[in-house]
Amino acid sequence: MPELPPDQQLRLQALMRLAPDAESVLEIGARDGRVTRLLSERYSSVLALDLQRPAFEFPHVTTAAGDVRSLQFLDRSFDLVLCTEVLEHVPELESATRELCRVARRHILVGVPHRQDLRHDRTTCAACGHRNPPYGHVHAFDEQRLFRLFPGWLPSTITHVGEVQDRTSGLAAWLMDLAGNPWGAYGAGERCLACGSELQAAPAYSRSLPRRIAAGIAVRLDRLQALLTQPRAGWLHVLFSSAADSPAAAMLASPGAVKA
After folding, report:
1. 78 Cβ contact list (under 8 Å, min separation 6)
2. How many domains does the chain have?
3. Residue 89: CB partners within 8 Å, gap ≥ 6?
4. CA distances (Å), 136 to each of 37, 90, 187, 258, in order?
């Protein structure tokens, strides 16, 4: 497995520091196994799930194909459900989080981009002209929105990871759209959400003078925005615990506890 960039290594380290003790773990969105490998070193029973069954093999790990919006597991099947870099991609967000709550018994560990500006780094599909949010992220999250998605679960630990300043303005985003979003997130494997074509930036020589002017103004506006905006954390990690596992519930259940 290739070495990860420093920001991704920092994110994984922060995530694993939050992971609680558990007998059984369900990992949603296992992808290439970068998180799964770390889970296999700590837990004795891990089920790694993705839309297509992962091809990797690690000790203590079973792999499976499945969709977070409709999980084929009984209620309260896993002590810990881990879901990172997934929810921002799922259109039916409430269906996904209901399923996480249903199959989790004690803990849910979630990682999402923190207060991402979905106008920044947009792309324009060369095949159909559709404007796509960066990296296929169709949702933005802050703490309150994430908490509302997990009713009945208590956010026991919250951490913020990294530092970014990818903010834009309505005017700059409009100008960049006019310019065809030449500097959007055209990474390898990124695909248009509308037609499925691989996203590729238009060659520089094909950009008309008005488009180049629009893009240039947008870049300058973004630079001014950066001077006026404080950096923010790039990622939000929250460990949710069931009410039965919360410190308050444990205190009420202990001998001699006074109930309100």
Report:
1. 22, 24, 25, 26, 47, 103, 104, 105
2. 1
3. 136, 137, 138
4. 25, 9, 11, 50
- Asked if residues 96 and 68 have their Cβ atoms less than 8 Å apart, the reply is yes
* 31 torsion bin: left (phi>0), alpha (psi -120 to 50), beta (else): left
Q: Sheet of 61-65: strands edge to edge?
A: 61-65, 46-50, 25-28, 78-84, 104-113, 235-242, 153-161
Calculate Rg over the CA atoms of the chain.
21
State pLDDT tens for residues 197-237. 999 988 876 789 999 999 999 999 999 998 888 899 999 99
Residue 259 lies inside a defined structural domain of this protein:
no
In Å, how far from its chain's centre is CA 178?
Answer: 28
Six token digits for residue 200: 């590729």
The string of DSSP letters for 185-238 reads ---TT-B-TTT-PBP-PPPGGG--HHHHHHHHHHHHHHHHHHHHS--B-SEEEE
Residue 1: inside a domain, yes or no? no
User: Which residue segment(s) compose the domain that 208 sits in?
Assistant: 6-253
Residue 57 forms part of a structural domain: yes
Residue 86 placed within a domain: yes
pTM for the model stands at: 0.89
> Which tokens sit at 26?
């369900």
> At residue 115, what are phi and psi to the nearest 5 degrees?
50, 45
Using CB atoms within 10 Å of the CB of residue 138, give its burial: 0 to 12 exposed, 13 to 18 middle, 19+ buried: middle
Condensed to tens digits (0 to 9), the pLDDT of residues 61-101 reads 999 999 999 999 999 999 999 999 999 999 999 999 999 99
Do 146 and 211 form a contact (C-beta atoms < 8 A)? no
Contact (CB, 8 A) for 52 and 80: no
Which single residue is written with the structure tokens 């999980």?
Answer: 71
